[in-house]
Amino acid sequence: MNTVLDVQKLTKKYGDYLATDKVTFNIAEHTSTALIGPNGAGKTTTLSMLAGLVTPTNGSIQFQDHSVKDIRSLIGFLPQYPKFFHWLSALEYTEMAARLNGLETKNAVMEAKKTLEFVGIGNVMKKKIGTFSGGMKQRLGLAQAIVHQPKLLLLDEPVSALDPVGRRQVMELLKELQQKTTILYSTHILNDAEQMTDQLLFLRNGKLVENGSLDEVRNRYANPRIVIEFESIEERKRFESLITWEVTSKDLSISLAVDQPNVSMHQVLTILQSNNCSVRKVEHQTASLEEIFMKVAVI
Ligand code: ATP
Fold first, then answer.
1. Ordered alpha helix ranges (H), the chain
2. What is the pTM (predicted TM-score) of this model?
3. CA-nearest residue, atom 3 of ligand 1
4. Which residue has its alpha carbon closest to ligand 1 atom 28?
5. pLDDT of 204-223, one tens digit each?
């Protein structure tokens, strides 16, 4: 697969403060990459450097097509807080973005209309932006970023301002877009990344601390365990007296890490059955996406 973007040791210092510290990764064509991390991790700083809005202190950014003089024709960028001119219509605004990104007037109008239809606000394209809801503005922001069909789409928290339905709809749009372009987007919600990501880049305090597919990262932090919920606290305590494994107990439940010698579902069920323990449920569990986020974000 072709590499669209190669980033080496990208560093940004504000005074003595390292907003990003030697961040290194690359992005293959027609993939989606989620840049994830808690507030202040350096996501916006990274995307702003890639978009040419912030000058790196050190490191390099190499686009596949380095013959291009103006990277604006190569990339589309949706900032975290896009600014709109409220007195313009959605069509006028998108057409303006198309022209700024190198399209000629006739083409710009045609592409703007097509793009507004695609993002789902074609029916209100002649309405003033000032009358738009947050969700409509987010779609308009996406439209201005893709109207010139960029090779690489950079999106800073594209769904954070949306309600759950809007989130789902915009993520569906992005999945469709991935057929035509390459996407790098930031989010601090792992569940959003779960819907669309080939590569996960996890930033913490400006450093890249994880890089891999969602499954790879999941497996690294899976922490598989067997969780048993008993009918009563007495039953839980009785079970505990029958075993030598390390457990974590809370109220009616206990949790057994499966990396201990001889811990298996079969073993657990045998002990429960042969001692007539009263249980409500027994299940295998692995770390949820939220737990994984907390682990990677805090460790
Ligand atoms: P969020 O999820 O809150 O948007 P983020 O991961 O996008 O966070 P950045 O906005 O990149 O984080 O900020 C990274 C760090 O760099 C933060 O501590 C921020 O305060 C600092 N920073 C960003 N821009 C500047 C600036 N212009 N001057 C000084 N410090 C800055």
1. 43-50, 90-100, 105-118, 134-146, 164-177, 190-195, 214-220, 233-242, 265-274, 289-298
2. 0.84
3. 39
4. 14
5. 999 999 999 988 988 888 88
